[in-house]
Amino acid sequence: MAQSSRQVQTQAQQQVQTLSPQQILAVKLLELPTMELEERIHAELLDNPALEEGKDTSSAEEDFGDDYNTKDEDGEPNTDAGEDISLGDYRTEDDIPDYKLQENNWSKENKAEDIPFSDSVSFYETLKEQLDMQHLTPEEKQLGEYLIGSLDDDGLLRKSTDALVDELAIYQGIYTTPEQLEHVLSVIQDFDPAGIGARSLQECLLLQIKRKEDSPLKQIEHDIISKCCDDFTKKNKEKIIQKLNITEAQYAAAVAELTKLNPRPGSSMGEAIGKNLQQIVPDFIVETEDDGTVILSLNSRNVPELRLSREFTDMLDEHTRNKANQSKESKDAFMFLKQKVDAAQGFINAVKQRQQTLFNTMQAIIDLQRPFFEEGDEALLKPMILKDVAEKAGLDISTVSRVSNSKYVQTNFGIYPLKFFFSDGYTTENGEELSVREIKRILKECVENEDSEKPYTDDELAEMLKEKGYPIARRTVAKYRQQLNIPIARLRR
């Protein structure tokens, strides 16, 4: 009996978030620190003949807010900035770049502060190079890049796959499953250094043991970590020997090998690989005057001014006027000109949008952490998360996240990464919000000042913190202690 087949057509409604090419360009430029933005602009200037570097013949400043106005020679706010701007080669005022309207784009000393920073290849780039060598679909590579970007400084993945699935859907418009993420993560866990991408210390050590050559000792190492990891970290030798039915000599040999493993594989790579030192150019300059006034400016010192090519726009206008009587060649030329001019204008707009978004984000951080910028005391930093800044600046959380990544601010008290200003808060039973950063600092001081013969237990540390005005539970003390890489009391003797 022949089987018949039929096609069934169904209709389903699905909401999909997509980004336009202009939005994608704006997002990519937003992620770049100042030095990389300069390189990106120079590359665009070489690629698009309709984009030109403007002449630095005149400048004025744009008013970005009450606290950040420029001042004239008498110290009064200059409200006439921009009146003497000459259009020059610009077609209209709209074509004048925003940063040509900003004079106060560098510190008073007109120089960057030198701090050590290793060059060469970054932690992220090293792993991404290995990802690009894998035979993955474009969708899997997207997931891989997001996973790599989610690793902490130790090279471990602290977030659950379910949480990452939600993040990808909300912030990236990428819909996936925990199973797909697990598959891509397993690929990353084969990268160098061994242990990268692990979700726990136990998994990190097992990944490193897995790469060793097979031997009886390797099996004992594997059993110790897979079956007795908690006892191993607490140095309960007798329990491990009894549970695994091994000799003391076998245990000693296995432990000697296990101590050679790296529990923090990401730290071996550092923030960047290389031994040379180079200059970190801050993206923001925040200057605090004697009267407490905080002045914020963007560091656009080496960002070239951009404009549309006068030659290209004139030719485009000519083709537009003669559009009715055009040959095929003329239409092709018109399309080429229009494409290049549109791309150039889109790039200029994206740079403008980046500058404004950066400014709004940093201004919100200053408003939320003003006591720190006035005094420079780390203890004055309040609990602050991405959501707080996003609401203050009127931006999306993912936008604030991109701005905060790999950006630096120069203050009167030194240069800081923007991530320095973010920390969680701890709310007491009375509703009082305390800074986790401050609690950890006090906890670390308590441990550093303890008697090494009688180290404090977590209960004793909790009681000490309570006496100092930080009423947190013992289990919270244990969590913060682990995050500070402080071992339990018995191991601190």
Task: Kindly describe this structure.
With 493 residues, this protein is of the alpha+beta class. It has three domains: 21-54 and 62-68 and 103-112 and 282-393, no CATH class; 123-268, no CATH class; 425-492, Orthogonal Bundle (Arc Repressor Mutant, subunit A), CATH 1.10.10.60. 46% of the residues lie in helices and 6% in strands. It has 18 helices and eight strands. It has helices at residues 21-31, 34-47, 123-132, 138-149, 161-172, 178-188, 201-210, 216-233, 237-244, 248-258, 310-321, 328-368, 370-375, 386-393, 397-404, 436-448, 458-467, 474-483; strands at residues 51-53, 284-288, 294-298, 306-308, 408-411, 414-417, 425-427, 433-435. The strands form three sheets. It has a four-stranded mixed β-sheet with strand order 3-2-5-6. A two-stranded antiparallel sheet has the order 1-4. It has a two-stranded antiparallel sheet with strand order 7-8. Strand 2 and strand 3 (294-298) form a beta hairpin. Helix 12 crosses helix 14 (386-393). The protein is globular. It starts with 20 loop residues before the first helix and ends in a 10-residue tail after the last helix. The relative contact order is 0.11. The model is unreliable at 56-120 and 271-278 (pLDDT under 50).
